[in-house]
Amino acid sequence: MPDDTRARQRTGTGLGVLLALVLGAVLLTALPGDENREGDCRARTVTSWAADRGVTDEFARYGDDASRADDWTGGDGTHSVRLPDGRVLWLFSDTFLGQVHRPPNPVGESYAWRDTTAPMVRNSAVVMDDGRLKRTLPAPMFADPAPGQWRWPVAARVEPRSPGSSEQVVRVVLWTRTTGAHPWIYGVPTATEVATLSLPGLRLEGITRILDQRRVKDPARRVLFGTTALTHDDDWTYVFGGNDARAAARPASDAYVARVPRGRLADPAAWRYWDGERWSIPSHMKPVLGDGERKGVGSAFAVARDGGTYVLFTMAAGTEGLTTIASYWACSPTGPWHGPGKGFSPPLPEQRAGVAAYNPQVHPAISRGRLVLSYDVNWLDASGGAAAQANLSRNVSLYRPRFVTLRLGPG
C-alpha cells in the first residue's frame, strides 16, 4: 500500500491524503490565445515563505474552546470564501465536533485531547468575522444524498443569483462519493454537485447535480470538479477537477477544466469542458495536465494568480510527497504547465513522526495583499480505523489546517 494511501484512516477521516498527495496542482488563467490583460506571463516560483501563526493560532483557539459541545474542533479539506459583508465562510470536509480537554491527556502527554467517542460529520462550515472564528453552522451542512454516500464541499464562489441579477448567493461545489472497497477506501468518486446558500443568512436553498459519473465504469477515470475555482475578468468562472487515477496505482492523476458563465454555476447546461481544442460537452473533455508519470494532479490542489501568470501548488512527488509543496506555472488554464519548481516544506506539528501534510489551498479571502496558503495535517497509520482516530483524538492539533505566507519570484 503506498504511503499516501496510509495517510488517512479508513474510517473516512480527512478529505483524503490519497486524493491530495498525488502530484497535483492546477491553476486558472486566461483563455488560450486571449490577450493577457493583467500583465505579461512570466515564469514564477516560490522564493520564500513564512509560517502564518496568526491564522493557524486562531483555528487552534477556536478548536480548543470548550464552551460548546456542537462546534468544530478539527477538520480537513480547507476552503474559504469572502462574503459581501466582509465575513469569511470556511468549509471543511470530515469534521470532528464535541469538546476538547486540556492537557495532560489520559496517556500522560501534554497535548489537548478529545474523547474517542467525539462525533464526526462529513462536512461543516465555520463563520469568521473580523479575523475571529465565531460559530459553527449546524453540521453537517450538506446532508448525505443516499445511504453509503456523502458530500465534501470544495470551491465556493459568491455570484449573482442569475446573470445580471443584483441579488447575490453563495455557490458551493460539492463532491459526492460512495463507500467502496480497496483501493477506494476513501470512497468511489460519484458526482459533482453545486449547493446554493442564501445571503446573508447562509441558509441552504438546494443542491443541483452537475456531472454524474456513475456511468463511467472505471472509477479511476471519473472526474470530480471544484478543487479550485476562479472568476475571470471576462465574467467566466473556471472550475478545475481531477480523476482518481492515483488510487488505481498510477503515479499521477489528470487535471481537467470547465468554464461557466458568471451566475450559472448551479446550471448544469451552462458548464462547458475543455476537449483539447475548444469548450465542449462532458464526454469530450480531455486533461489539461498529466502524463501519467512525473507530472499530474490529484483531486485536491490550489491556484493563485501573480500578475499575468498562474501558479500551481501541489504536494511534491515521490518520497517528499508527504512533507513538501511544489509549484508549477502557466499562462492559460489549458496549459502548458511548466515545472515543478523547487519545493518547500512547511512546518509540521511537534509530533512530526507519522504525520503528513496535504491539500495545499490558497485563500484570497484572507490574503489582503499577501499570498496565504493552507495545508492540512493528518496521522499516518497503516492500520487505520480506531487506531488512527485515537491518534488524532490524543493530539487535536494533528487534524487542523496550518497556514503559510508565500512570496513568488522569477522561476
Q: Would you kindly provide a written description of the structure presented here, covering whatever features stand out?
A:
The chain has about 400 residues and is mainly β. It has one domain. It has four helices and 23 strands. The chain has helices at about 5, 15-20, 55-65, 385-395; strands at about 45-50, 75, 80, 90, 95, 120, 125-130, 130-135, 150-160, 170-180, 190-195, 205-210, 225-230, 235-245, 255-260, 270-275, 280, 300-305, 310-315, 325-330, 355-360, 370-380, 400-410. A hairpin with a 4-residue loop joins strand 16 and strand 17 (about 280). The longest helix has 12 residues, at about 55-65. The two termini are about 35 Å apart.
| Oligomer classification | single chain
The beta-strand count equals 23
Extract low-pLDDT stretches.
1-12, 15-38
The residue fraction in helices comes out at: under 10%
Please work out how many helical segments DSSP would assign.
Answer: 4
Mean pLDDT: 84
CA-CA gap between termini: 35 Å
Q: What summary fits the major beta sheet?
A: 5 strands, antiparallel
Classify the beta-strand content into a percent band: 35-45%
Order of helices and strands: HHEHEEEEEEEEEEEEEEEEEEEEEHE
What strand line-up does the widest sheet have? 13-14-15-16-17
> What characteristic shape results from the CA principal axes?
globular
Query: What value does the Rg take, in angstroms?
Result: 20 Å
Number of separate structural domains: 1
Alpha-beta classification: mainly beta
